Amino acid sequence: MPDTRVRxxxxxxxxxxxxxxxxSSIDKFLQARLVLxxxxxxxxxxxxxxxxxxxxxxxxxxxxxxxxxxxxxxxLGVNSLFFVEDTSVRxxxxxxxxxxxxxxxxxxxxxxxNFHDVDLELRRRxxxxxxxxxxxxxxxxxxxxxxxxxxxETQGHIAExxxxxxxxxxxxxxxxxxxxxxxxxxxxxxxxxEMSFEESWRHDFRVRALVAxxxxxxxxxxxxxxxxxxxxxxxxxxxxxxxxxFEELYIIVGKVCAGKTTLGQYMSSRHPYHLIEASxxxxxxxxxxxxxxxxxxYLARDLLHQKGPDIVARHIVTMYAGNLGDGYIISxxxxxxxxxxxxxxxPACKVxxxxxxxxxxxxxxxxxxxxxxxxxLEEFREHDRQxxxxxxxxxxxxxxxxxxxxxxxxxxxHRQIEALLAGNYRSVPGVSDxxxxxxxxxxxxxxxxxxxxxxxxxxxxxxxxxxLTVQDEVGDGTRNVERIxxxxxxxxxxxxxxxxxxxxxxxxxxxxxxxxxxxAYLKAIRSM
Length: 528
Description:
single chain, alpha/beta, Maf protein, Rossmann fold, Arc Repressor Mutant, subunit A, 3 domains, seven-stranded mixed β-sheet, 21 helices, 16 strands, 16% strand
Protein backbone atom coordinates (compact mmCIF):
# COMPACT_ATOMS: atom_id res chain seq x y z
CA MET A 1 0.00 0.00 0.00
CA PRO A 2 1.40 3.47 -0.82
CA ASP A 3 2.90 5.64 1.92
CA THR A 4 0.28 6.66 4.48
CA ARG A 5 2.44 8.17 7.18
CA VAL A 6 0.86 10.54 9.66
CA ARG A 7 1.31 14.21 8.79
CA UNK A 8 2.76 15.92 11.85
CA UNK A 9 0.86 19.16 11.20
CA UNK A 10 -2.46 17.37 11.70
CA UNK A 11 -1.72 15.99 15.15
CA UNK A 12 1.16 17.93 16.69
CA UNK A 13 0.17 21.54 16.00
CA UNK A 14 -1.58 23.79 18.53
CA UNK A 15 -4.37 24.50 16.04
CA UNK A 16 -6.03 21.52 14.40
CA UNK A 17 -8.34 21.36 11.43
CA UNK A 18 -11.93 20.20 11.92
CA UNK A 19 -13.12 18.74 8.63
CA UNK A 20 -16.61 17.53 7.77
CA UNK A 21 -17.96 15.38 4.93
CA UNK A 22 -21.56 16.02 3.81
CA UNK A 23 -23.03 12.84 2.37
CA SER A 24 -26.05 10.57 2.69
CA SER A 25 -23.90 7.50 1.97
CA ILE A 26 -22.50 5.91 5.12
CA ASP A 27 -20.24 3.72 2.96
CA LYS A 28 -18.63 6.78 1.38
CA PHE A 29 -18.14 8.35 4.80
CA LEU A 30 -16.56 5.23 6.31
CA GLN A 31 -14.11 5.03 3.42
CA ALA A 32 -13.24 8.73 3.64
CA ARG A 33 -12.80 8.57 7.41
CA LEU A 34 -10.46 5.60 7.15
CA VAL A 35 -8.35 7.32 4.49
CA LEU A 36 -8.06 10.65 6.33
CA UNK A 37 -7.45 8.90 9.63
CA UNK A 38 -4.32 7.24 8.27
CA UNK A 39 -2.80 10.69 7.82
CA UNK A 40 -3.83 11.93 11.27
CA UNK A 41 -7.09 13.73 10.42
CA UNK A 42 -10.39 13.17 12.22
CA UNK A 43 -13.36 13.40 9.87
CA UNK A 44 -16.81 14.46 11.02
CA UNK A 45 -19.97 13.25 9.33
CA UNK A 46 -22.65 15.71 8.33
CA UNK A 47 -25.31 13.05 7.85
CA UNK A 48 -28.56 13.31 5.93
CA UNK A 49 -31.48 10.89 5.59
CA UNK A 50 -32.00 12.10 2.03
CA UNK A 51 -29.80 13.33 -0.79
CA UNK A 52 -27.88 16.22 0.76
CA UNK A 53 -28.36 18.46 -2.25
CA UNK A 54 -30.33 18.68 -5.47
CA UNK A 55 -28.41 17.11 -8.36
CA UNK A 56 -29.06 18.78 -11.70
CA UNK A 57 -26.76 16.82 -13.98
CA UNK A 58 -27.15 19.09 -16.99
CA UNK A 59 -25.12 21.76 -15.17
CA UNK A 60 -21.90 19.76 -15.37
CA UNK A 61 -19.70 18.54 -12.56
CA UNK A 62 -18.15 21.84 -11.43
CA UNK A 63 -21.37 23.84 -11.37
CA UNK A 64 -23.27 20.97 -9.75
CA UNK A 65 -20.75 20.81 -6.90
CA UNK A 66 -20.63 24.59 -6.58
CA UNK A 67 -24.39 24.76 -6.16
CA UNK A 68 -24.25 21.83 -3.76
CA UNK A 69 -21.91 23.76 -1.48
CA UNK A 70 -24.15 26.84 -1.64
CA UNK A 71 -27.18 24.74 -0.72
CA UNK A 72 -25.39 23.10 2.19
CA UNK A 73 -24.00 26.41 3.47
CA UNK A 74 -27.55 27.67 3.79
CA UNK A 75 -28.21 24.76 6.16
CA LEU A 76 -24.91 24.58 8.05
CA GLY A 77 -23.66 28.13 7.85
CA VAL A 78 -20.45 29.34 6.28
CA ASN A 79 -18.03 28.81 9.18
CA SER A 80 -17.47 25.06 8.80
CA LEU A 81 -14.71 23.42 6.77
CA PHE A 82 -16.43 20.66 4.82
CA PHE A 83 -16.53 18.93 1.45
CA VAL A 84 -18.82 17.01 -0.86
CA GLU A 85 -17.88 14.32 -3.36
CA ASP A 86 -19.50 13.11 -6.58
CA THR A 87 -18.62 10.16 -8.76
CA SER A 88 -18.97 9.89 -12.53
CA VAL A 89 -18.15 7.19 -15.08
CA ARG A 90 -17.25 7.24 -18.76
CA UNK A 91 -17.77 4.10 -20.84
CA UNK A 92 -15.82 4.81 -24.03
CA UNK A 93 -18.01 2.61 -26.24
CA UNK A 94 -21.16 4.51 -25.26
CA UNK A 95 -19.74 8.02 -24.93
CA UNK A 96 -18.94 10.79 -27.38
CA UNK A 97 -16.49 13.65 -27.42
CA UNK A 98 -19.14 15.95 -25.97
CA UNK A 99 -20.76 13.63 -23.43
CA UNK A 100 -19.74 10.91 -20.98
CA UNK A 101 -22.13 7.98 -20.58
CA UNK A 102 -23.41 7.31 -17.98
CA UNK A 103 -21.50 10.31 -16.64
CA UNK A 104 -22.87 11.91 -13.49
CA UNK A 105 -25.97 9.74 -13.65
CA UNK A 106 -24.04 6.61 -12.68
CA UNK A 107 -26.27 5.81 -9.67
CA UNK A 108 -29.50 6.01 -11.65
CA UNK A 109 -28.01 4.24 -14.68
CA UNK A 110 -26.59 1.40 -12.59
CA UNK A 111 -29.88 0.94 -10.72
CA UNK A 112 -31.91 0.41 -13.89
CA UNK A 113 -29.48 -1.69 -15.93
CA ASN A 114 -27.79 -5.05 -15.49
CA PHE A 115 -24.49 -6.62 -16.45
CA HIS A 116 -25.97 -8.85 -19.16
CA ASP A 117 -27.51 -5.95 -21.10
CA VAL A 118 -24.39 -3.80 -20.85
CA ASP A 119 -22.19 -6.70 -21.91
CA LEU A 120 -24.32 -7.34 -25.01
CA GLU A 121 -24.26 -3.67 -25.96
CA LEU A 122 -20.48 -3.46 -25.59
CA ARG A 123 -19.98 -6.57 -27.72
CA ARG A 124 -22.31 -5.13 -30.35
CA ARG A 125 -20.09 -2.03 -30.47
CA UNK A 126 -16.85 -3.91 -31.05
CA UNK A 127 -16.36 -5.05 -27.45
CA UNK A 128 -14.65 -1.81 -26.48
CA UNK A 129 -14.73 -2.21 -22.68
CA UNK A 130 -12.49 0.65 -21.54
CA UNK A 131 -13.88 2.90 -18.83
CA UNK A 132 -12.78 5.72 -16.53
CA UNK A 133 -14.17 6.42 -13.07
CA UNK A 134 -13.88 9.99 -11.76
CA UNK A 135 -14.11 11.26 -8.19
CA UNK A 136 -14.59 15.02 -7.80
CA UNK A 137 -14.42 16.82 -4.47
CA UNK A 138 -15.55 20.37 -3.75
CA UNK A 139 -14.14 21.78 -0.51
CA UNK A 140 -15.67 24.77 1.27
CA UNK A 141 -13.04 26.84 3.08
CA UNK A 142 -14.55 29.46 5.44
CA UNK A 143 -13.68 32.93 4.21
CA UNK A 144 -13.01 31.74 0.67
CA UNK A 145 -15.77 32.69 -1.75
CA UNK A 146 -14.99 29.99 -4.31
CA UNK A 147 -14.89 26.22 -3.84
CA UNK A 148 -11.63 24.31 -3.98
CA UNK A 149 -11.97 21.52 -6.55
CA UNK A 150 -9.98 18.30 -6.28
CA UNK A 151 -10.04 15.44 -8.77
CA UNK A 152 -9.08 11.78 -8.77
CA GLU A 153 -9.64 9.15 -11.45
CA THR A 154 -8.89 5.54 -12.34
CA GLN A 155 -8.79 4.08 -15.82
CA GLY A 156 -9.62 0.47 -16.55
CA HIS A 157 -12.21 -1.72 -18.24
CA ILE A 158 -15.44 -3.61 -17.61
CA ALA A 159 -14.95 -7.29 -16.78
CA GLU A 160 -15.99 -9.98 -19.24
CA UNK A 161 -18.18 -11.77 -16.71
CA UNK A 162 -20.61 -10.64 -13.99
CA UNK A 163 -19.34 -10.41 -10.38
CA UNK A 164 -19.44 -13.57 -8.29
CA UNK A 165 -17.97 -12.38 -5.00
CA UNK A 166 -19.57 -11.14 -1.79
CA UNK A 167 -19.65 -7.77 -0.09
CA UNK A 168 -16.92 -6.93 2.42
CA UNK A 169 -18.39 -6.60 5.91
CA UNK A 170 -15.53 -4.46 7.15
CA UNK A 171 -15.12 -2.28 4.05
CA UNK A 172 -18.66 -2.01 2.62
CA UNK A 173 -17.60 0.10 -0.37
CA UNK A 174 -15.83 -3.04 -1.67
CA UNK A 175 -18.95 -4.70 -3.02
CA UNK A 176 -20.41 -6.28 -6.17
CA UNK A 177 -23.52 -4.11 -5.80
CA UNK A 178 -21.97 -0.98 -7.37
CA UNK A 179 -19.90 -0.26 -10.45
CA UNK A 180 -16.91 -1.45 -8.37
CA UNK A 181 -18.22 -4.97 -9.00
CA UNK A 182 -17.78 -4.59 -12.77
CA UNK A 183 -14.68 -2.41 -12.99
CA UNK A 184 -11.12 -3.76 -13.31
CA UNK A 185 -8.50 -0.96 -12.96
CA UNK A 186 -5.53 -0.87 -15.29
CA UNK A 187 -2.66 -2.84 -13.82
CA UNK A 188 -4.99 -5.08 -11.80
CA UNK A 189 -6.45 -8.52 -12.40
CA UNK A 190 -9.37 -8.23 -10.00
CA UNK A 191 -12.45 -6.06 -9.92
CA UNK A 192 -12.06 -3.10 -7.63
CA UNK A 193 -14.87 -4.38 -5.43
CA GLU A 194 -13.30 -7.80 -4.79
CA MET A 195 -9.84 -6.52 -3.84
CA SER A 196 -8.48 -6.51 -0.32
CA PHE A 197 -8.39 -3.09 1.31
CA GLU A 198 -4.61 -2.87 0.87
CA GLU A 199 -4.82 -3.69 -2.85
CA SER A 200 -7.78 -1.38 -3.50
CA TRP A 201 -5.88 1.56 -2.03
CA ARG A 202 -3.56 1.53 -5.06
CA HIS A 203 -6.42 1.70 -7.56
CA ASP A 204 -9.43 3.37 -5.94
CA PHE A 205 -10.54 6.56 -7.69
CA ARG A 206 -12.01 8.04 -4.49
CA VAL A 207 -8.87 7.29 -2.50
CA ARG A 208 -6.85 9.21 -5.08
CA ALA A 209 -9.11 12.24 -4.69
CA LEU A 210 -9.05 11.98 -0.90
CA VAL A 211 -5.24 11.77 -0.78
CA ALA A 212 -5.08 14.90 -2.94
CA UNK A 213 -7.50 16.50 -0.46
CA UNK A 214 -5.16 15.55 2.40
CA UNK A 215 -2.28 17.29 0.61
CA UNK A 216 -4.34 20.46 0.32
CA UNK A 217 -5.50 20.29 3.94
CA UNK A 218 -1.90 19.91 5.06
CA UNK A 219 -1.15 23.24 3.39
CA UNK A 220 -4.06 24.80 5.29
CA UNK A 221 -2.83 23.30 8.55
CA UNK A 222 0.59 24.86 7.94
CA UNK A 223 -1.01 28.24 7.30
CA UNK A 224 -3.21 27.86 10.37
CA UNK A 225 -0.12 27.40 12.54
CA UNK A 226 2.19 30.01 11.05
CA UNK A 227 4.66 31.64 13.39
CA UNK A 228 3.72 35.12 14.60
CA UNK A 229 6.43 36.57 12.35
CA UNK A 230 4.28 35.57 9.39
CA UNK A 231 1.13 37.49 10.36
CA UNK A 232 -0.18 40.30 12.55
CA UNK A 233 -3.12 40.29 14.96
CA UNK A 234 -5.26 43.00 16.52
CA UNK A 235 -4.96 41.54 20.01
CA UNK A 236 -2.62 39.12 21.79
CA UNK A 237 -3.24 35.43 21.52
CA UNK A 238 -4.80 33.70 24.50
CA UNK A 239 -2.89 31.00 26.28
CA UNK A 240 -3.20 27.47 24.96
CA UNK A 241 -5.53 25.18 26.89
CA UNK A 242 -4.05 22.54 29.17
CA UNK A 243 -3.31 19.32 27.32
CA UNK A 244 -5.95 16.64 27.65
CA UNK A 245 -5.57 12.94 28.32
CA PHE A 246 -6.55 9.80 26.52
CA GLU A 247 -10.04 9.03 27.78
CA GLU A 248 -9.67 5.35 26.87
CA LEU A 249 -6.62 3.68 25.40
CA TYR A 250 -5.96 0.24 23.94
CA ILE A 251 -2.51 -1.01 22.94
CA ILE A 252 -2.77 -3.81 20.37
CA VAL A 253 0.19 -6.20 20.14
CA GLY A 254 0.74 -9.42 18.22
CA LYS A 255 2.58 -11.04 15.34
CA VAL A 256 2.17 -10.05 11.71
CA CYS A 257 -1.17 -11.14 10.19
CA ALA A 258 -2.55 -12.07 13.62
CA GLY A 259 -5.24 -9.41 13.25
CA LYS A 260 -3.87 -6.24 14.90
CA THR A 261 -4.62 -3.96 11.96
CA THR A 262 -8.03 -5.51 11.37
CA LEU A 263 -8.93 -5.00 15.02
CA GLY A 264 -7.83 -1.37 14.97
CA GLN A 265 -9.55 -0.59 11.67
CA TYR A 266 -12.77 -2.27 12.79
CA MET A 267 -12.87 -0.36 16.08
CA SER A 268 -12.15 2.94 14.38
CA SER A 269 -14.63 2.39 11.53
CA ARG A 270 -17.56 1.15 13.63
CA HIS A 271 -16.93 2.96 16.91
CA PRO A 272 -15.63 6.42 17.94
CA TYR A 273 -12.01 5.34 18.33
CA HIS A 274 -8.99 6.94 16.71
CA LEU A 275 -6.38 4.51 15.37
CA ILE A 276 -2.70 5.38 15.78
CA GLU A 277 -0.43 3.17 13.70
CA ALA A 278 3.00 3.08 15.29
CA SER A 279 4.65 2.17 11.97
CA UNK A 280 3.39 5.41 10.46
CA UNK A 281 4.78 7.43 13.38
CA UNK A 282 8.06 5.53 13.07
CA UNK A 283 8.40 6.51 9.39
CA UNK A 284 7.60 10.12 10.24
CA UNK A 285 10.21 10.25 13.02
CA UNK A 286 12.79 8.49 10.85
CA UNK A 287 12.29 10.94 8.03
CA UNK A 288 12.71 13.91 10.36
CA UNK A 289 15.80 12.34 11.90
CA UNK A 290 17.33 11.54 8.51
CA UNK A 291 17.33 7.79 9.18
CA UNK A 292 16.92 5.54 6.15
CA UNK A 293 16.73 1.81 5.60
CA UNK A 294 16.11 -0.63 2.73
CA UNK A 295 13.16 -2.24 4.58
CA UNK A 296 10.89 -1.32 7.49
CA UNK A 297 12.86 -3.70 9.73
CA TYR A 298 16.20 -2.02 9.12
CA LEU A 299 14.64 1.42 9.30
CA ALA A 300 13.09 0.64 12.69
CA ARG A 301 16.25 -1.05 13.95
CA ASP A 302 18.47 1.91 13.07
CA LEU A 303 16.00 4.48 14.38
CA LEU A 304 15.59 2.71 17.74
CA HIS A 305 19.36 2.31 18.01
CA GLN A 306 19.97 6.02 17.39
CA LYS A 307 17.03 7.55 19.24
CA GLY A 308 16.18 5.00 21.92
CA PRO A 309 13.84 1.99 22.07
CA ASP A 310 10.89 4.09 23.28
CA ILE A 311 11.24 6.88 20.71
CA VAL A 312 7.99 6.04 18.88
CA ALA A 313 5.98 5.88 22.12
CA ARG A 314 7.40 9.21 23.25
CA HIS A 315 6.37 10.81 20.00
CA ILE A 316 2.89 9.32 20.20
CA VAL A 317 2.38 10.79 23.67
CA THR A 318 3.75 14.16 22.61
CA MET A 319 1.70 14.30 19.41
CA TYR A 320 -1.61 12.92 20.62
CA ALA A 321 -1.90 13.41 24.38
CA GLY A 322 -3.40 16.87 23.93
CA ASN A 323 -6.21 15.60 21.75
CA LEU A 324 -9.60 14.90 23.27
CA GLY A 325 -11.69 12.03 21.93
CA ASP A 326 -13.79 9.06 22.86
CA GLY A 327 -10.86 6.67 22.70
CA TYR A 328 -7.53 5.76 21.14
CA ILE A 329 -5.99 2.59 19.77
CA ILE A 330 -2.23 2.17 19.32
CA SER A 331 -1.20 -0.68 17.05
CA UNK A 332 2.22 -1.86 15.93
CA UNK A 333 4.53 -1.11 18.87
CA UNK A 334 7.71 -3.15 18.62
CA UNK A 335 9.50 -2.88 21.97
CA UNK A 336 8.82 -3.54 25.64
CA UNK A 337 10.07 -0.03 26.38
CA UNK A 338 7.33 1.46 24.18
CA UNK A 339 4.56 -0.41 25.99
CA UNK A 340 6.09 0.45 29.35
CA UNK A 341 6.34 4.16 28.48
CA UNK A 342 2.69 4.33 27.44
CA UNK A 343 1.66 2.47 30.59
CA UNK A 344 3.60 4.86 32.79
CA UNK A 345 1.89 7.83 31.16
CA UNK A 346 -1.58 6.23 31.10
CA PRO A 347 -1.86 3.53 33.79
CA ALA A 348 -5.48 2.75 32.88
CA CYS A 349 -4.60 1.64 29.35
CA LYS A 350 -5.35 -1.95 28.31
CA VAL A 351 -2.88 -4.11 26.39
CA UNK A 352 -4.61 -6.55 24.03
CA UNK A 353 -2.56 -9.42 22.61
CA UNK A 354 -3.98 -10.84 19.36
CA UNK A 355 -2.78 -14.36 18.63
CA UNK A 356 -3.05 -16.74 15.67
CA UNK A 357 -1.18 -19.88 14.70
CA UNK A 358 1.64 -19.68 12.19
CA UNK A 359 -0.41 -21.58 9.61
CA UNK A 360 -3.36 -19.20 9.93
CA UNK A 361 -1.14 -16.14 9.71
CA UNK A 362 0.72 -17.45 6.66
CA UNK A 363 -2.55 -18.25 4.87
CA UNK A 364 -3.76 -14.71 5.56
CA UNK A 365 -0.52 -13.34 4.17
CA UNK A 366 -0.89 -15.39 0.99
CA UNK A 367 -4.45 -14.09 0.60
CA UNK A 368 -3.60 -10.45 1.28
CA UNK A 369 -0.03 -10.24 -0.03
CA UNK A 370 0.79 -7.74 2.68
CA UNK A 371 4.51 -8.57 3.00
CA UNK A 372 6.10 -7.66 -0.29
CA UNK A 373 8.65 -10.21 -1.47
CA UNK A 374 7.62 -12.85 1.10
CA UNK A 375 6.33 -15.87 -0.80
CA UNK A 376 7.45 -18.98 1.09
CA LEU A 377 6.84 -20.19 4.63
CA GLU A 378 10.54 -19.93 5.43
CA GLU A 379 10.61 -16.30 4.25
CA PHE A 380 7.56 -15.67 6.43
CA ARG A 381 9.35 -17.23 9.42
CA GLU A 382 12.39 -15.07 8.75
CA HIS A 383 10.17 -12.00 8.86
CA ASP A 384 8.83 -13.22 12.22
CA ARG A 385 12.39 -13.67 13.53
CA GLN A 386 13.26 -10.13 12.51
CA UNK A 387 10.26 -8.68 14.33
CA UNK A 388 11.02 -10.73 17.45
CA UNK A 389 14.45 -9.08 17.68
CA UNK A 390 12.84 -5.88 18.97
CA UNK A 391 11.96 -7.74 22.17
CA UNK A 392 8.21 -7.30 22.65
CA UNK A 393 6.71 -10.25 20.80
CA UNK A 394 8.43 -13.07 22.74
CA UNK A 395 6.90 -11.80 26.01
CA UNK A 396 3.79 -10.00 24.73
CA UNK A 397 1.47 -12.38 26.57
CA UNK A 398 3.19 -11.60 29.91
CA UNK A 399 2.44 -7.88 29.45
CA UNK A 400 -1.12 -8.19 28.10
CA UNK A 401 -4.35 -7.55 30.00
CA UNK A 402 -6.56 -9.31 27.43
CA UNK A 403 -5.81 -12.04 24.91
CA UNK A 404 -7.77 -12.76 21.70
CA UNK A 405 -7.29 -16.02 19.81
CA UNK A 406 -8.12 -15.04 16.24
CA UNK A 407 -8.49 -18.38 14.49
CA UNK A 408 -12.02 -18.15 13.09
CA UNK A 409 -13.72 -16.20 10.34
CA UNK A 410 -13.67 -12.42 10.05
CA UNK A 411 -17.21 -12.37 11.45
CA UNK A 412 -16.05 -14.40 14.46
CA UNK A 413 -13.28 -11.85 15.00
CA HIS A 414 -15.74 -8.97 14.76
CA ARG A 415 -17.90 -10.63 17.42
CA GLN A 416 -14.86 -10.94 19.66
CA ILE A 417 -14.06 -7.26 19.18
CA GLU A 418 -17.62 -6.20 19.94
CA ALA A 419 -17.56 -8.28 23.11
CA LEU A 420 -14.25 -6.69 24.09
CA LEU A 421 -15.72 -3.22 23.73
CA ALA A 422 -18.93 -4.16 25.52
CA GLY A 423 -16.98 -5.58 28.47
CA ASN A 424 -18.69 -8.98 28.36
CA TYR A 425 -15.91 -10.81 26.54
CA ARG A 426 -15.39 -13.43 29.27
CA SER A 427 -18.31 -15.42 27.85
CA VAL A 428 -17.05 -15.23 24.25
CA PRO A 429 -14.85 -18.08 22.94
CA GLY A 430 -11.28 -17.05 22.24
CA VAL A 431 -11.23 -13.93 24.45
CA SER A 432 -9.77 -14.13 27.94
CA ASP A 433 -8.31 -12.07 30.75
CA UNK A 434 -4.55 -12.40 31.03
CA UNK A 435 -4.01 -9.64 33.57
CA UNK A 436 -0.39 -10.16 34.59
CA UNK A 437 0.23 -11.52 38.08
CA UNK A 438 3.51 -9.90 39.10
CA UNK A 439 4.26 -12.40 41.87
CA UNK A 440 3.64 -15.36 39.56
CA UNK A 441 5.77 -13.82 36.81
CA UNK A 442 8.59 -13.22 39.27
CA UNK A 443 8.59 -16.92 40.09
CA UNK A 444 9.09 -17.92 36.45
CA UNK A 445 12.44 -19.27 35.33
CA UNK A 446 12.75 -16.52 32.72
CA UNK A 447 12.40 -13.71 35.24
CA UNK A 448 14.74 -15.35 37.73
CA UNK A 449 17.42 -16.08 35.11
CA UNK A 450 17.28 -12.51 33.84
CA UNK A 451 17.55 -11.24 37.43
CA UNK A 452 20.65 -13.39 37.86
CA UNK A 453 22.21 -11.94 34.72
CA UNK A 454 21.34 -8.43 35.89
CA UNK A 455 23.13 -9.14 39.16
CA UNK A 456 26.18 -10.69 37.49
CA UNK A 457 28.98 -8.41 36.45
CA UNK A 458 29.14 -9.13 32.75
CA UNK A 459 28.37 -12.39 30.93
CA UNK A 460 27.69 -15.31 33.27
CA UNK A 461 27.97 -19.06 32.78
CA UNK A 462 24.96 -21.28 33.37
CA UNK A 463 26.37 -22.66 36.67
CA UNK A 464 26.89 -19.07 37.86
CA UNK A 465 23.34 -18.18 36.82
CA UNK A 466 22.11 -21.20 38.77
CA UNK A 467 23.95 -20.03 41.90
CA LEU A 468 22.44 -16.55 41.65
CA THR A 469 18.88 -17.91 41.43
CA VAL A 470 19.04 -19.23 44.99
CA GLN A 471 18.51 -15.73 46.38
CA ASP A 472 16.46 -13.87 43.81
CA GLU A 473 13.55 -11.54 44.30
CA VAL A 474 9.86 -12.43 44.35
CA GLY A 475 8.33 -9.23 45.65
CA ASP A 476 5.93 -10.68 48.18
CA GLY A 477 8.26 -10.55 51.16
CA THR A 478 9.70 -14.02 50.62
CA ARG A 479 12.69 -15.46 48.83
CA ASN A 480 12.97 -18.34 46.44
CA VAL A 481 15.09 -21.13 47.79
CA GLU A 482 14.73 -23.54 44.89
CA ARG A 483 17.75 -23.31 42.69
CA ILE A 484 17.30 -23.35 38.92
CA UNK A 485 19.69 -25.91 37.48
CA UNK A 486 22.37 -24.86 35.02
CA UNK A 487 20.78 -27.04 32.38
CA UNK A 488 17.35 -25.43 32.83
CA UNK A 489 18.91 -21.95 32.82
CA UNK A 490 20.45 -22.73 29.44
CA UNK A 491 17.14 -24.07 28.10
CA UNK A 492 15.25 -20.96 29.19
CA UNK A 493 17.72 -18.36 27.96
CA UNK A 494 18.36 -19.93 24.56
CA UNK A 495 14.61 -19.60 23.87
CA UNK A 496 14.78 -15.84 24.44
CA UNK A 497 17.80 -14.58 22.45
CA UNK A 498 16.06 -11.19 22.17
CA UNK A 499 16.38 -10.71 25.96
CA UNK A 500 19.76 -12.35 26.66
CA UNK A 501 22.65 -12.86 24.26
CA UNK A 502 24.60 -16.10 24.15
CA UNK A 503 28.35 -15.58 24.28
CA UNK A 504 30.46 -18.44 22.94
CA UNK A 505 34.17 -18.46 23.72
CA UNK A 506 36.25 -21.31 22.32
CA UNK A 507 37.38 -23.63 25.07
CA UNK A 508 35.16 -21.99 27.70
CA UNK A 509 31.65 -22.51 29.02
CA UNK A 510 28.62 -21.02 27.32
CA UNK A 511 27.80 -17.64 28.84
CA UNK A 512 24.80 -15.32 28.63
CA UNK A 513 24.60 -11.56 28.86
CA UNK A 514 21.41 -9.61 29.55
CA UNK A 515 20.34 -7.21 26.76
CA UNK A 516 18.39 -3.95 26.92
CA UNK A 517 15.04 -5.66 26.16
CA UNK A 518 15.75 -8.09 29.01
CA UNK A 519 16.28 -5.20 31.43
CA ALA A 520 13.11 -3.58 30.10
CA TYR A 521 11.20 -6.81 30.75
CA LEU A 522 12.40 -6.89 34.36
CA LYS A 523 11.44 -3.25 34.83
CA ALA A 524 7.99 -3.85 33.35
CA ILE A 525 7.30 -6.81 35.66
CA ARG A 526 8.61 -4.98 38.73
CA SER A 527 6.46 -1.94 38.02
CA MET A 528 3.20 -3.91 37.93
